[in-house]
Amino acid sequence: MSPRFVGPRGLFLLPLAVLIVVAGCASNSKKDQQKLSRYTPEVLYDRGQKALKSSNYHEAVQTFEALTARYPFTPQSRQGRLDIIYAYYKLGEKESGKDAAETFIRENPTHPRIDYAWYLKGLIDFERTPYRLERWMDVTLVDRPPSTAREAFVSLRTVVERYPKSPYAADARRRMIYLRNRVADYNLGIAQYYAQRDAWVAAGQRARETIEQYDGAPATKDALRIMYRSYVELDYKDLAANTEKVFHENYPEDSIELPRNARNWWKFWT
User: Fold this and answer.
1) Would the pTM count as exceeding 0.85?
2) Residue ranges of the domains in the chain?
């Protein structure tokens, strides 16, 4: 069967058909909202919970949105505002989820499950940090500032410090360690960038910042090396001697000298 030729009229009708489909979807969504608004807050909340448990996150969002729109001041609505954060998160609607979390935290600072809102907010930003493949390819540590990593760290630290008995505190702490190392790697990458260009003042400052702010991260070893080399190059003998002493106290088996810049085999473009 030969393909049919779509003439100018057919081309004109295609976008019209798309508009009709989109309008139909919007109309159906509006009808669903109107239908849901007829239920009591108790029924709406139960429906939203069932949708969450069955992993029907789209229906959960619709139900909780109808609940908060129709009955904004009920206890069920307040709880629905918390549960919709998770539904947004599972749908991959990170911006909506983050906005919902921030609104809930702002409006319900004494809620008994406020720790959960902080945890979800941190989780949303945590999962927006660069993928491991990007990290392995070394395309994000200097070129892309880990702003979401810092925001996630603050939210997760809030869970750990304010709500240490929270069931989410242990996982939040583990994620904090990863994020600390992530941001420390980013800072170290910048220090290395300056060191490779003999910008020793900037390299030393960034290395010192890495050590002071992210103590315990693996990147602090090379940060100490860069700081020592910076002091040597700038002829700050006392500071260099102190840095060398600190390095050998922490890494007695290692050399403080910066390793030579080895060319990675896979970076064929460098």
Assistant:
1) no
2) 36-91
